Amino acid sequence: MHFVYLIVAKNKDSRISYVGYTNNLKKRLLLHNIGKGAKFTKGRKWNLIYFKRYKSKNIALKEEYKLKKNYTLRKEIKNNYKKDENISSITL
Fold this sequence. Notes:
Blueprint: E1 2-11, E2 14-22, H1 25-33, E3 47-54, H2 57-69, H3 71-83
Antiparallel strand pairs: 1-2, 1-3
C-alpha cells in the first residue's frame, strides 16, 4: 500500500501545506517532525490532515502530483481542517 498525504503547519497567521507520498505514513510524519523529511518541511511542527491509500506506487505518484498542483482542493481540505481544529491531527 502507498499513501498520498497532506500535512499542515502554522506559519505566522496562516497555515502552509505539504503534499507527499509514502508507503509508511506513521514513519514519514515522524521524519517530517524531527527534521528528516523534505527540505521544505524542516523546522516546523506538522499535522496530518488528509491521506488516501492506493494499491500501487505508480498510482499514488500520479495522484500526489494532481493534489500538489490542485491548489483549490488543497485549500478546501485546509479549510475543512480549520473548522475542526479541536482535532489536532488524524490518528494513525
